[in-house]
């Protein structure tokens, strides 16, 4: 018996409704969690449905060296300190902001361990700078000037081409692209800092910059942790970079690894470096690079990696390509790409327990040892800043440690 037309229409509508529900479920948007800025939302991928920093955060696993159990007195000749330093590239005029940062880090960590501070500048430090920084710590302080040959642009860089290319970058709104000193700093931080004569016998460093904050008491020797657990590099914040600042970095890197496939680690982080799902427009503009990188204003590292044959060869290749001056290659993506390709992923560590801020981003764990920041807060400011978070990619491909 034929089914009446109205009934057929109702049946069709019902089927379409069911199909629409299934479609919406299968194409649902990623999980949303409260954002770091008011009532906005922060979109997360399958790599991070919930910010791990919202969960209770403790110290890293394993044996940890503590000040109360070992000799960390400032002038001890039998100190438990290893061959490491707090390292700061800073100018005399940044003294006020640097001292605030020093007091923060001394209060939360270094007053227990008294690791030395090494300050570097392309100009001589003033006596006021030396006096006020030494007053901020019981540890030894060293003041070093960067050799001109480490700081200035190499001879093969075309000054006229630099001016023209930097003008284009400025028109694209790339921050600091017109500042010669910024380009020099990025190159120095990429491939020169570990060559300074004053650091020749130093292995580990903790990079510290002015205008940063530390929120959590850290009760173990982080340098001993790096050494004892065979870690090469430690980070807190993981971001996307501006793709317009480094369009040739990945193509040059691909050419390098085509010439030197032996340098690529078996357990590398290639997927994190080339992901094109979370920010496909970045991958496209950066010619195959996701632009994900460790934000290097905080980094705890083993200089033996940077002094290695593979890293030195990579840096020299990039240096000859000229992108530190013709584009705006930062030391953060250069370090990150090198670590992602040439180091075993297990040797990179997220210091999730170290509360840290460099405006406008945070690493704020949920821990009773922390105060002054909101657990899980990633940014402060406009809601678009949430898009700069590359941790979902890192956690998806590498893990949360």
Automatic annotation (TrEMBL):
Residues 40-53 have a biased composition (Basic and acidic residues). One of its GO terms (biological process) is cell wall mannoprotein biosynthetic process. One of its GO terms (cellular component) is Golgi apparatus. InterPro entries: Glyco_trans_15, Nucleotide-diphossugar_trans. The keyword Glycosyltransferase applies. Keywords: Glycosyltransferase, Transferase. Residues 30-53 are annotated as: Disordered. GO terms for molecular function: alpha-1,2-mannosyltransferase activity. The active site is at 299 (nucleophile). It comes from the Eukaryota. Transmembrane segments: none annotated. Belongs to the glycosyltransferase 15 family. This is Mannosyltransferase KTR4.
């Amino acid at each position: 018996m034929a089914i009446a037309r109205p009934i057929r229409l109702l049946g069709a509508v019902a089927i379409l409704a069911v199909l629409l529900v299934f479609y919406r479920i299968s194409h649902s948007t990623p999980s949303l969690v409260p954002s770091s800025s008011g009532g906005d939302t922060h979109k997360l991928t399958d790599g991070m449905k919930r910010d791990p920093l919202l969960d209770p955060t403790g110290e890293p696993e394993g044996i940890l060296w503590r000040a109360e159990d070992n000799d960390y007195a400032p002038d001890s000749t039998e100190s438990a300190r290893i061959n490491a330093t707090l390292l700061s590239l800073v100018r005399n005029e940044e003294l006020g902001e640097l001292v605030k940062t020093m007091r923060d880090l001394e209060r939360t960590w270094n007053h227990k361990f008294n690791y030395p501070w090494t300050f570097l500048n392309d100009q001589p430090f003033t006596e006021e700078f030396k006096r006020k920084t030494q007053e901020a710590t019981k540890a030894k302080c060293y003041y070093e000037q960067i050799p001109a040959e480490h700081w200035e642009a190499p001879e093969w860089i075309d000054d006229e081409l630099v001016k023209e290319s930097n003008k284009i970058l400025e028109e694209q709104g790339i921050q600091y692209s017109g500042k010669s000193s910024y380009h020099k700093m990025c190159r120095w931080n990429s491939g020169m800092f570990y060559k300074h004569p004053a650091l020749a016998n130093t292995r580990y460093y903790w990079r510290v910059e002015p205008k940063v904050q530390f929120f959590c008491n850290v009760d173990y020797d982080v340098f001993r942790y790096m050494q004892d657990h065979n870690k090469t590099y430690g980070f807190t914040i993981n971001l996307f970079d501006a793709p317009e600042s480094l369009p040739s970095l990945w193509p040059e890197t691909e050419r390098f690894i085509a010439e030197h496939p032996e340098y690529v680690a078996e357990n590398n982080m290639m997927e994190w470096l080339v992901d094109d799902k979370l920010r496909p427009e970045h991958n496209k503009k950066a010619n195959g690079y996701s632009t994900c990188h460790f934000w290097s204003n905080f980094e705890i590292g083993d200089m033996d990696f940077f002094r290695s044959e593979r890293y030195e060869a990579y840096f020299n290749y990039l240096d000859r390509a000229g992108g530190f001056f013709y584009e705006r290659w930062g030391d953060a993506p250069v370090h990150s790409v090198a670590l992602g390709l040439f180091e075993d992923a297990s040797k990179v560590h997220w210091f999730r327990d170290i509360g840290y801020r460099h405006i406008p981003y945070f690493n704020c764990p949920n821990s009773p040892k922390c105060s002054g920041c909101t657990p899980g807060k990633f940014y402060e400011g406009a809601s678009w800043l949430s898009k700069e978070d590359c941790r979902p990619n890192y956690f998806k491909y590498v893990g949360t440690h």
